Amino acid sequence: MEVKQFIIHKLEKQSGFNAKKTERKAPVAITQLHADFMSQVKDVYYKKSNPIYGVFDSAAASYPYQTFLDSYLKGNLAFSAFTSKALGHFEKIINEVTQATGGYVLFCHFITTEDFMAVIVLNDKESYLVGDDLDLKSDFSLDIEKLDVANFSNCAKWNNNEDVYLSFTRGKKDVSNYFKKFIGCTDYTSAKESSEKLKKALSDFLIGQGLDKERIEAIKSEVFTYCEQRMKNKEDISLNTVSSIVNQDDPELFKEFAASEAYEVSSVFKGHATLKSLRYYSFKSQELTIVFDSKLLDHKVIFDAGSNELLIKEVPEKLRAQLNRQAPAAETNE
């Protein structure tokens, strides 16, 4: 990880009162400490906070954070000025929420495989240590294990106009709502996009586990049964529940895999009919093995119940070549 810019401001607020901000005037001089710190934060963010995903609202005038960020990325605004403007906007937002509280507001521009801007609100936690006199002492440290208020903006994906480029810790609902308002995210990943991401993550994960086809199909079928029931009841699909279905002994394993940067599966989302393709038709006997995606039924795979025939249309080139090699040579007339 390369940390390009790093600054911390303070926004103190008690419930029922307006916030008081204390700004750092200039970014810190980056050291290995900052890179190590952000690496730990990033790990906690993706592995424990169960992010949800979305995009900026199109009404940029009403949600100015995206304008501040764009100006900074284009070199029209210094990093300290960008964070100062963003902090002022955040102060205005939380002053509108009686129960809102502040904390240390961290802005960090960092690069892993892609370009990110992170905005994180951190708080102190009391900790204990043993002093030189071998007695207990009370101390305070930043609680990075509890990221209730955080946003990662994938600047590369945003600049490339990709479908999803914002992510948030799920957090408490009221906190999540005003923080998303501050960032300007009112449009979350569509049901179809979220469902496609889940399918891709599930397929890659199960293949990576080295499971046989029967076990993979059984797990996919069980996941689909759960998703289908949630969709019928018009309820959200929970990544936690799916993860428990995938691996009851270690439900965190798939959740961390699916919520990672590579797949970006939201913690909760609306299901879409595309999830039906999780359920494959498969058959195996001593003479015949056939597996096909259910979405091919009635399109490239046609079943005629009357004649008890299964027709495969548009045979793939490689399979057709195999079949042609096995076919007897045609007779010729001389």
Automatic annotation (TrEMBL):
Pfam family name, one: NA37
Keyword Cytoplasm in record: yes
Primary localisation category: cytoplasm
InterPro entries named in the record: Nucleoid_associated_NdpA
A cellular component annotation (GO) from this entry: cytoplasm
GO function terms (MF aspect): double-stranded DNA binding; single-stranded RNA binding
Similarity comment: Belongs to the YejK family.
Name this polypeptide is given: Nucleoid-associated protein
